[in-house]
């Protein structure tokens, strides 16, 4: 079994895949892509992933030269993108029942948290924050309030819960922690969300190889943001 992961370390979706691989004790062949250089737009990469997004996976029988910035997983000739689809695939194929329980109600709760991250929390962060650092736009207070509302939702979900979907670490936690750590690294305070803070501390200490799989990429993202902010302040 050999899986290539095309990714960029600062990306929260890419870090989710790294967290899942760490939890499953899977060794991935890491293929970093430079998105700003347009490596995800080469004809070779577009054959693997027409959406030219990261992360993406691919098998060891196919390689890109040069590698592209979209994380893609290709396993046994199988190419797949979208981080949560990749995560489900990995646990389904390589044994991650604890991460993605088979009980219908337990799995539905994990799916709801994943969908909340995908459809609400991360998009609200991205819509508020990225225009500021990438285009020099002023902070939009209305968009900030939308993000704060999403964080309040998460805080409510976590009240009285050890983890995001119950008493055990699941895919929901790995997805959400990639997003929350990114929000935190962007300088957006999460201190007022007590349940989120308690959970965040727990996941950082219990997710397998957290620092290697997520922490290092978070610091790269933090440095990237600082660099962009310095340019806009000149």
Per CATH, what is the topology of the largest domain?
Glutathione S-transferase Yfyf (Class Pi), Chain A, domain 2
Count of discrete alpha- or pi-helical segments spanning 4 or more residues: 8
Number of structural units classed as domains: 2
Number of strands: 5
Major sheet: 5 strands, mixed
Strand content: 5-15%
Instruction: Give the overall silhouette.
Output: globular
Low-confidence stretches: 61-71
Strand/helix succession: EHEHEEEHHHHHH
Return the CATH architecture of the largest domain. Up-down Bundle
The top-level CATH class of the largest domain is Mainly Alpha
- Helix and strand content put the structural class at alpha+beta
Helix percentage: 55-70%
Terminal Cα separation, in Å? 49 Å
Account of the 3D structure:
This is Glutathione S-transferase. Residues 1-98 form the GST N-terminal domain. Pfam families: GST_C, GST_N, GST_N_3. With 234 residues, the chain is of the alpha+beta class. The protein has two domains: 3-94, 3-Layer(aba) Sandwich (Glutaredoxin), CATH 3.40.30; 104-232, Glutathione S-transferase Yfyf (Class Pi), Chain A, domain 2. It has eight helices and five strands. Strands 1, 2, 3, 4 and 5 form a five-stranded mixed β-sheet that branches. Strand 1, helix 1 and strand 2 form a beta-alpha-beta unit. Helix 5 crosses helix 7 (194-206). The longest helix is centred in the middle third of the chain and has 32 residues, at 104-135.
């Amino acid at each position: 079994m050999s899986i290539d992961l095309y990714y960029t370390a600062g990306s929260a979706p890419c870090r989710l895949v790294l967290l899942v691989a760490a939890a499953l004790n899977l060794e991935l062949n890491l293929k970093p892509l430079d998105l700003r250089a347009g490596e995800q737009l080469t004809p070779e990469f577009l054959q693997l992933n027409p959406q030219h997004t990261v992360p993406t996976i691919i098998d060891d029988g196919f390689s890109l030269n040069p590698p592209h910035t979209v994380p893609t997983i290709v396993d046994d000739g199988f190419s797949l993108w979208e981080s949560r689809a990749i995560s489900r695939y990995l646990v389904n194929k390589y044994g991650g029942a604890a991460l993605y329980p088979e009980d219908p109600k337990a799995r539905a709760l994990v799916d709801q948290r994943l969908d909340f991250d995908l459809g609400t929390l991360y998009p609200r962060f991205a819509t508020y924050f990225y225009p500021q650092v990438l285009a020099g736009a002023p902070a939009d207070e209305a968009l900030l309030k939308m993000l704060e509302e999403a964080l309040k939702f998460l805080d409510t979900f976590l009240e009285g819960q050890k983890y995001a979907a119950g008493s055990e670490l699941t895919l929901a936690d790995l997805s959400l922690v990639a997003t929350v750590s990114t929000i935190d690294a962007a300088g957006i305070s999460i201190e007022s969300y007590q349940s989120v803070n308690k959970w965040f501390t727990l996941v950082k200490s219990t997710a397998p190889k957290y620092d290697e799989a997520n922490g290092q990429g978070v610091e790269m993202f933090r440095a990237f943001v600082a660099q962009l902010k310095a340019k806009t302040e000149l």
